[in-house]
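Here is a typical protein record:
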Amino acid sequence: MSTEPTRILVLYHSRHGTTLQLARQIARGVESVTGCQALLRTVAEITSIESEIAPRDHTTSSDPVIRLEELTHCDGLALGSPVWFGNMSAAMKHFWDNTTSLWVSGSLIDKPACVFTSSSSPHGGQETTQQSMMLPLFHHGMMVMGLPYSEPDLHTSSQGGTPYGASSISGDPVNHGGISLNTQVKTLAFAQGQRLATIAKRLKVLN
């Protein structure tokens, strides 16, 4: 049996910090599982009119930019992006558009994955954004996991949380005002990371 830790990649793009907060909470859930290690990574920004007018607050993250080989060697993936017009962010999509070599080699086939997001309003497109992030994962042959209703907070949370994955309201995108995650959202994100790590660890033993 391998003594190497089960490595879970928590890959995110965060403009004003809420998706980053979710990523941190998911990482805590991952590391609550014995023998599991969370690797927090972000994606490179791309030049756009929007980013020139309202640049990303780089103080929100000190995590390294993802390298393709880190995806190859991970045992599981949690993928997060803020809602951009009901879709994943341009920076996140640009990253996945450049993973053809991994698709050709089948490097991600049968690895478990989950998604998470944040939006500026309760009905701002959280679920469509989560679905948009699932699409490249399915094409890579990953086993995409949701967040089951056995989590009590999924029934009552008002700030975020969907059966597709953890989510949160992020605040005012015009004035760039983020908000802290409430207790229910933190609990759901932690549970999602814990569930992903548990499944990834079991699969690693079987392989």
